[in-house]
């Protein structure tokens, strides 16, 4: 049987899952491929370190260049993460005429165009299904299954750590810090969780997905990013009373003014399918002009789900190699640069929670400021009585511009009757964002 040899750079969680998956289903993979996949070399930092998977003697090396420049290796699998030296290894492998598989979301978000161009110039391919969504085939869905669609909107719960924390805050009434500590003990959060809870991991993934969805380069630095560290249990409780669940969403949609790309906590209607995505799971809700609404759901991280996605890319590229080719789909296509809608121009409905003194006329003062800034109130909730003290006033608005909202809240927060900075959360409603009837 024909052998297709691969080299793996990195044997951490994903690398271990990849090797284990290739071994577990070796016979099935060989049958489907009509050839065998042989892991020839694996590059690691320290070959003496104990491994969670049994390996043949001599397969490990501390020199990744041995893999990149080995003429027998047809596919290089980069699983070390980060920008450097991963970028250099991938570019060198592509220029050597090899196919590349990577799970490196940060690298693709920041250097994707350079890597795709290098692959095109070398007549080879970089595959990256595992970079977003773990075992969920979101990349394949956008590049292949929905190739005939104009993507109207794409919504994602793309960070399992944040979704776990918000689930525990919602269902158990925990504070952010309590839920984070629990997530760390359960292995869902890193010791330093800042990349996740501040929304940066979600932004990396959104940059990749929006680039594919809209056939244009989405610069990472132009994505609006807001994490979950400021979400409070009180706002979660008020949200549920109003029929919403708080989720950290990665959102993109095509508008007349440009493409929206943003990451932030969002009040999702309880009837929307994304509202029921719990704990560390990921989900993608896509609306295409031809296909309508579809939902992809599953495990978004971990050795086995992500390893499964890496293996799928290896098999796809191996099929192309067996046909005498080094490319299957080629690099993503980019049309002319398209305008990204500044956050100030985004239109949304909003949840406000004001902390105000409990005396007559307060509500009218706040409503007056909002009206002066073209913000219309849809509903109001005022809880409790504390004569002379502070009480929460919750409002839901009709659609308003982000710039108007921010300007209005600056004025409101200076009112003598307002005792603390106003909390606000955007609401998932409007064209292409509401669930199908």
TrEMBL record:
Gene Ontology process terms (BP): methionine biosynthetic process; threonine biosynthetic process
EC annotation from Swiss-Prot or TrEMBL: 1.1.1.3
Cofactor field: a metal cation
Catalytic residues of the enzyme: 205 (proton donor)
Pathway: Amino-acid biosynthesis; L-methionine biosynthesis via de novo pathway; L-homoserine from L-aspartate: step 3/3; Amino-acid biosynthesis; L-threonine biosynthesis; L-threonine from L-aspartate: step 3/5
InterPro entries, A to Z: ACT-like_dom_sf, ACT_dom, Asp/hSer_DH_NAD-bd, HDH, HDH_cat, HDH_CS, NAD(P)-bd_dom_sf
Annotated residues for binding of NADPH: 105
Residue sites binding NADP(+) per the record: 9-16
Keywords: Amino-acid biosynthesis, Metal-binding, Methionine biosynthesis, NAD, NADP, Oxidoreductase, Threonine biosynthesis
PROSITE patterns: ACT, HOMOSER_DHGENASE
GO molecular function: homoserine dehydrogenase activity; metal ion binding; NADP binding
Family: Belongs to the homoserine dehydrogenase family.
PANTHER family linked to this entry: HOMOSERINE DEHYDROGENASE
Name the UniProt record assigns to this protein: Homoserine dehydrogenase
């Amino acid at each position: 049987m024909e052998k297709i040899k691969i080299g793996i750079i990195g044997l951490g969680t994903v690398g271990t899952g990849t090797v284990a998956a290739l071994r577990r289903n070796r016979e099935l993979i060989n049958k489907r491929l009509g050839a065998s996949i042989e892991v020839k070399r694996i590059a690691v930092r320290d070959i003496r370190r104990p491994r969670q998977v049994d390996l043949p003697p001599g397969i490990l090396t501390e020199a990744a260049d041995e893999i990149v420049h080995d003429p027998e290796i047809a596919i290089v699998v980069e699983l070390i993460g980060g920008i450097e030296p991963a970028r250099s290894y991938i570019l060198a492998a592509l220029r050597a005429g090899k196919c590349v598989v990577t799970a490196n979301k940060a690298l693709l978000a920041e250097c994707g165009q350079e890597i795709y161009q290098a692959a095109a110039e070398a007549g080879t391919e970089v595959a990256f299904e595992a970079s977003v969504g773990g075992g969920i085939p979101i990349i394949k869905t956008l590049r292949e299954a929905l190739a005939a669609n104009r993507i109207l909107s794409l919504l994602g719960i793309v960070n399992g750590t944040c979704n776990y924390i918000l689930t525990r805050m919602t269902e158990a009434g925990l504070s952010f810090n309590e839920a984070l500590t629990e997530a760390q003990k359960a292995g869902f959060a890193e010791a330093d969780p800042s990349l996740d809870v501040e929304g940066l991991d979600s932004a990396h993934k959104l940059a990749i997905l929006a680039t594919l969805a809209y056939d244009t380069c989405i610069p990472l630095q132009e994505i609006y990013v807001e994490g979950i560290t400021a979400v409070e249990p009180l706002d979660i409780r008020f949200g549920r009373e109003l029929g919403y669940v708080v989720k950290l969403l990665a959102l993109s949609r095509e508008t007349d003014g440009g493409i929206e790309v943003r990451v932030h906590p969002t009040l999702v209607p309880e009837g929307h399918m994304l509202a029921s995505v719990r704990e560390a799971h990921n989900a993608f809700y896509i609306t295409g002009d031809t296909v309508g609404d579809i939902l992809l759901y599953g495990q978004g991280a971990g050795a086995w789900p992500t390893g499964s996605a890496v293996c799928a890319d290896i098999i796809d590229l191996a099929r192309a190699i067996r046909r005498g080719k080094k490319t299957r789909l080629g690099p993503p296509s980019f049309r002319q640069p398209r305008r990204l809608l500044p956050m100030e121009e985004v239109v949304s409905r909003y949840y406000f929670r004001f902390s105000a003194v409990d005396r007559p006329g307060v509500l009218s003062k706040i409503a007056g400021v909002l009206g002066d800034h073209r913000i219309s109130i849809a509903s109001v909730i005022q809880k409790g009585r504390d004569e002379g003290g502070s009480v929460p006033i919750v409002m839901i608005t009709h659609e308003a511009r982000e710039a108007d909202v921010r300007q209005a809240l600056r004025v409101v927060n200076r009112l003598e009757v307002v005792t603390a900075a106003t909390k606000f959360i955007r609401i998932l409603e409007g064209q292409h964002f509401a669930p199908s009837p």
